[in-house]
Structure formats: structure tokens, C-alpha cells
Design a protein that fits this description.
It contains three helices and 19 strands. By secondary structure, the protein is α/β, with parallel strands linked by helices. Strands 2-5-8-13-16-18-19 form a seven-stranded mixed β-sheet. Strands 1-4-7-12-15 form a five-stranded parallel β-sheet, covered by helices on one side. A five-stranded parallel β-sheet has the order 3-6-9-14-17, with no helix packed on it. The termini are far apart.
């Protein structure tokens, strides 16, 4: 198989093991169970943080060890988090339902014709203290959301957001300063 040749047998085994862990995680019915399970796998999660029914992908890259969530955070149902690179939430971050957080770009195999235009890359995503991401927004790799900033519903955030701002749209643009 081309995939096994390209990534190697070790990564295929790692992918399989993390796929099993992902299935076990999905059986965690209540937020405290999900939180404890992720912490056992190396995630750092602060007190009074609520993790609703979050979905993860690319467990076999950074995995839960790449997640750092501060205290008093909330992540809503059906949020999708890419674990290819680090995802950091400082204290009191709110992420609403159906938000997608991406940490990498990869168009496919090494010989894919678009690789020369869109080379594989990954970058962490950081949410500074007190920021809010509204429902159905998409956060792209390498983005930092500034302190006390608000991302309006349905926005696609392609670049860093300064602190104390409201951004909205596709791509997200400054609407106004908050303070």
C-alpha cells in the first residue's frame, strides 16, 4: 500500500493504537469522564473547565499531549479539533458549538501535483485568556486569538486576531475594538 510505504510501519501502528483510544474516548458520556480520560493521556486541563462532546482527529500526531486548556474554559458540542500540532487555550476561553480548529495543511501524498503549491505544514493554534469563538467558526493553522477578543458566528479566521477586538466574516476582518 502506498500509504504504508510513505509513512512507515511504525506510524501505521501508532495510528491504529490512537484510533482505538479515540473510540474509547467517544464512549465518555459525561464531560468529567472525557476530561479525566484526556488528562490520563497527557492533556493538561485546568479546574472548572467543561468539555462537551468534542471530536478530535489526527490523534496519532501530537495527540492529547498537544492539548493545553486553562481553567474555567468551555468547549461546546461537536467542536472539531485537529491534534496534528498543539492547541492551547488560556484561562476563561469559550469555544461554542461546531467550531473547527485546524493545525495543519496537507493535500495528500508526497507526489500529489498540488504539493509544490501547497506544501505540507503544521502550526499551533493559541487562544489567549478571555477570548470567545462563536458557533460554526473555523480557525486555521498558526492563528493566535488575542485576549478578550470575540470571533463572530460562522467566521473563518485566517490570521492572528488582536486583543480586545470583534472580528467577523469570511475571511474574518476587524469589525471594531471592544474597549
Amino acid at each position: 500500500m502506498k500509504a504504508v510505504k510513505e509513512v512507515g510501519e511504525f506510524r501505521v501502528i501508532k495510528f491504529t493504537l490512537f484510533s482505538i483510544l479515540s473510540c474509547i474516548y467517544s464512549f465518555g458520556t459525561f464531560p468529567p469522564i472525557r476530561k479525566i480520560f484526556l488528562m490520563l493521556l497527557g492533556a493538561r486541563i485546568g479546574n472548572d473547565t467543561v468539555l462537551m462532546n468534542i471530536k478530535f482527529f489526527n490523534w496519532h500526531h501530537m495527540g492529547p499531549k498537544g492539548i493545553r486548556i486553562g481553567k474555567e474554559c468551555f468547549i461546546g458540542d461537536e467542536t472539531l479539533i485537529d491534534l496534528y500540532d498543539k492547541v492551547v487555550l488560556e484561562d476563561q476561553v469559550t469555544i461554542a458549538q461546531r467550531v473547527t480548529i485546524l493545525t495543519h495543511l496537507n493535500v495528500g501524498y508526497k507526489d500529489h501535483p498540488l504539493q509544490k503549491y501547497f506544501p505540507k505544514k503544521s502550526k499551533p493554534v493559541i487562544f489567549r485568556s478571555g477570548c470567545v469563538v462563536a458557533v460554526a467558526s473555523i480557525i486555521l493553522p498558526g492563528v493566535t486569538i488575542g485576549e478578550r477578543s470575540f470571533i463572530a458566528a460562522g467566521s473563518v479566521v485566517t490570521k492572528n486576531v488582536p486583543k480586545d477586538t470583534l472580528v467577523a466574516g469570511i475571511p474574518a476582518k476587524l469589525v471594531r475594538k471592544i474597549q
